Backbone:
């Protein structure tokens, strides 16, 4: 599995290269609409990668990653989970563009599923990361 880590290249391939026809005919309004309609999802992915990198640099967590699954249901995906197996500590975070889009009850339900499952016995810290936390 490969991942593009350069933000400019990823943006270019995601929006400009795949919509080259809009560029060639000068249809910038359609391209702008495509980017604006997808920005919430794309922005959240970029934000999640930012916080994963930041935690790698600043914390003592051993494993940090995104898109964790806390159950068999895809609705139980978690944006960010960091583990410190030695001290039995975990950080579980939801990443949102703004705090207004955060849905607390579903998040806590997913955290509870992990606490009862693979993180049984861990001290779990929960957080919400938004643009304001950058």
Residues:
């Amino acid at each position: 599995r490969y991942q593009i880590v350069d933000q400019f290249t990823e943006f270019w391939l995601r929006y400009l290269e795949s919509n080259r026809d809009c560029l060639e005919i000068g249809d910038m309004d359609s391209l702008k609409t495509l980017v604006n309609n997808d920005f919430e999802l794309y922005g959240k992915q970029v934000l999640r990668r930012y916080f994963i990198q930041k935690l790698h640099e600043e914390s003592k967590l051993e494993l940090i990653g995104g898109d964790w699954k806390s159950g068999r249901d895809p609705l139980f995906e978690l944006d960010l989970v960091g583990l410190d197996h030695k001290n039995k500590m975990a950080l579980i975070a939801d990443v949102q563009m703004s705090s207004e889009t955060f849905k607390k009850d579903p998040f806590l339900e997913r955290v509870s599923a992990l606490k009862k499952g693979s993180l049984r016995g861990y001290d779990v810290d929960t957080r919400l990361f938004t643009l304001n936390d950058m």
In short: The CA atoms of residues 17 and 51 lie 27 Å apart.
